User: Fold these one by one.
Assistant:
Number 1:
Amino acid sequence: MRQQAQKDQFIYLIRQNKKLIFKVCNAYCHDPEDRKDLVQEVIIQLWRSFDKYNSKYKLSTWMYRIALNTAISHYRADRKRKSATIPIDDNLMDFADENDSKELDSKVILLYNFINQFDELNKALMILYLDNNSYKDIAEVLGITETNAATKIGRLKQQLKQQFENV
Amino acid sequence: MELQELKEMWSEYDKKLDKSLQLNMQMLRKMNFDKAGFKLKMLFIYKIAEMTIFMYLISWFSTYAFKYFTTPRFGIPALVIDLFVLLGFVSDLRQISIIIQVQMENYNDAIAPLQKKLETLKVGIVNHVKYSYFVIPFYPLMMILGGKIFYNVDFFDPQFKNYLVTNVIIGLALIPVVILPFWQLSKKEITPGIVKNFLQCTGWRSINSAKDFLSEIEKFEQEG
């Protein structure tokens, strides 16, 4: 009974934060089939850590940590991992309308092209920054100091600015 | 394009996702969360089994070395093998400690420290295999002990002199054979191609990638 309530609470949480999961998975996984596995894996890891959620951190900090850690490990893992996931035939996350997905595509491709030029850790930093997280939150998610996060973001901004000038 | 535009584009994307992204609730409810296993579980079980065997071997070889304390021709080989097993045990212990830390954190830890632990674990696993090659040239020691334990044969007996010397020479000849892959495994690029293909299965690529990522993380953690 208690577990069902906990599961419902968890499903509600996933529902509220589906965008966060989708954006992280999209940044680290380009293959749509592989992305399905990653979304599933992130949700499973969130469930596994659900009990351990430390309320001293923001809920989004906890979710970013798990989603990004899972995505980076998934990205870095060898092909063996495919056998570790449960095969799924359907998409856990999808667009309500096919046109919505197409409309998103052109702009999003450009957007993700900018993000994809960074390494795994800077990519995480960029996603957190674009999602309007404070330096304090970014530092907490990444495990670096606030000053370090601010310096790095400043540097990434400079880097991007130079690249934008060439677009 | 300005950075501000990128941010605006991202927030527009966020709004669109809000509208159009939907969760397959039926599928989510169907997911069997309880069966989701811990990825490092198999490695954990394997390491525990290996450590149990190592513990048994350590106690056995230590007792044997102590028993033949006054007969160094048997005591010393037992002690040397004991030392190798002990090193393997310590390496396993380090890996187990990282696995437990990762298991306890369960991806809950901050990105840089957790990824560092995972990559350190990868390096540890490959190094464990790499260092185990060092035992090969010492096989005459196992032969001496095996002969004594299983057949009560003393290979130091003059009648086995040629046999023992031949095996010691083979053991010494194996040193470069062992050093070559060890040395190659520490390199960024392996040449010639045949050696490279042979070493692919030893985790050379994964250790290099893990080391690269570890230095990336360290660079990332550095201030300024």
Number 2:
Amino acid sequence: MQSSSKLVTSVIVTALVVSLVWYAALPMLVPSKTAQEAPVTTPEQSRVIKIGGTLPLSGQFSPVAGTFNRLYDAWATQINERGGLYVSEYGKRLPVKVIVYDDQSDATTATRLYEKLISEDKVDVLIGPYSSTLTVPLVAVATRNSIPLIATSAGAPPIFNQGSDWVFVGIDLITNWPKTYFDMVKAKGQAKTIGFVATDEPFGQGVLAGGKTFAPQAGLTITSENIVPVGTKDFTAAIIKLKEANPDIVFVAALAPDAATFVKQAKEQGLKPREFHVPQLVKGFIESVGVDSANYITGEWYWTDDVLYGGVWGKEMFMQAMAKAGITNVDYPWAAVHYYGLEIIGAAIERVGTLDKAKLKDGLKNLSIPTISGEVHFKSFGNFKGVGTLVPFPVQMQNGKVVVVWPSETKKGDYTYPSP
Amino acid sequence: MTLAPLLELLIFGILLGGIYGLSAIGLSLIFGIARVLNLAHGAFAVLAAAVSFVVIQATGLNLLFVAMLVVPLFFVAGYVYEILLIHRMLSFNRERRIEALILGTLGFGLVTESIVSIIIPRNFGVNYQFLPISFGEITVSTLRLLLLAVVAITTVILHFIVYKTWYGKALRATIDDAETAQLMGINFDRITSITFGLGTALSALGGILLLLVFNISPNMGFPITLKVLAIIILGGLGSILGSLAASIALGISETFAGFFLDTAWSNSISLVVLLVVVLIKSEGLLRR
């Protein structure tokens, strides 16, 4: 028995060591996939504008943003059918090419691929990946390589705290994400208490910080705050704490996969607030919890076809690109945010009239660009010069459909509180 | 604080532990008979959950019906896995055997997880709406109670198999003393293969139950193996009831740690238990 025990101990210790080494080496062993082959270097007279980025074509974020490569391709086709983007430095329109790699929803993989886009593909400008988590390490990459990075679904403070002249984001700080939601709650005036569950990653922490600022301004008392690790599988402890606190609103500041697990278990375990609020009320979340369970949950979207703004090339062009890509806004509400990135890049190149990276960066700071969700200009946050101004609209799942419920000039349905 | 949340924590801890229990019993039996630490054990749970999810999505069949198809399938998979992979590695000399078994089972598990992540590149789960039951101020998940019932029934069946059948007698004899059992005419290879099939089927059933309460991520397999490892170390290798008791103890520890310390602690408490038990009493706290 003694020798058996020693054998068990040695096997376990060896297994743990081997596992750690394996997991550490895994990102290096995973080959990347390309949406398109890397282009051959072109001579100046046939200059192509190269835009490069990664998307979660696989991995946990793929249900949320794994189809946006098709949107980028559709947009590039539309632009090229118009002759390309006009660059005054060249005195003509230049075609665009978007190079997209699969980051597998992994920050390490994304960082490696952005280095490749810069050093091997020699892109003119970078478009950001999906999520703050993947964008955070790219600020240093773009700054070190002196190349503009137009970030997309990324507004968490760790991005901006690093300080940079080279990174621009269409959307406002993630801490301002829930502002319009709390404006709506305040206007309704019925909810009195709120409890938070937030994951310990940039998106969750950013939205939580915003929520804690705006909730008291909306007359709400915070009765519970629970920070949980990203990827938590069992939320029982947080759910029992929330049951004890019994808030009117349970606000789940987490990305869709974690939010879905929480809501699924909260309903299973009998947590019954008057409203669940989930910032990422997206297809992946709704499918995970089921349409019936998702009914009357509130969230935020950046764009719907009720929004009146035309953007750089007109709302119709965006809708046609979405149709060509086979993407619906209902299924992929963050598509608009990635389209802002294309609008910002296109407008900046045409207005600044150059592909010189430093000049583009300097020009972007002073531009006001019309997007499909309104004008965006860039403001400073400490040493970071490129924080955008776009914030999302509050929505609510009503009878199986996601409906804009605020503000009054855009809403398609009335905000229902408490949930039936 | 009232008593109600403490009671709820206790009940949910027991229910959570029950869900871990099946996989733990499976790995415990496998280790007990073959002295093989099957690091692919959790990957089989994830694979079974994925197969069930795909079948449900494609056909709309009830999970219970799907489980009745998938669990026997995984018995066969475990049986074949033992013959094709484990059996060959067990024939190596002692030093090569340990390395081969660690790398072989770990590699098989990681490849399995990768295949699952290619087929379903996201978290996945199924939804059955069960209204929770309230007892005064205490509310309990009906779904988890049903799962605990499944675990209890399975444990009774297992107990019957192990203590009332020829296979069980041969299994216990082999766990106690493999050489003497072989001298008595027990076919060690066959018993080992059957036990791998049984253990893998239990892991598969555990994975299918997890599908109901968690959203499964394709890379959950190895963390499940580590958790189950902590349980069987705690419960004593090769012991069915010890594994079940240790599962429940771990489930309760996780929920209480999450409530009184932090949810991050509830995720890592199993590893703390594993390290402490290995360092202090490596034969397990609840030795068979």
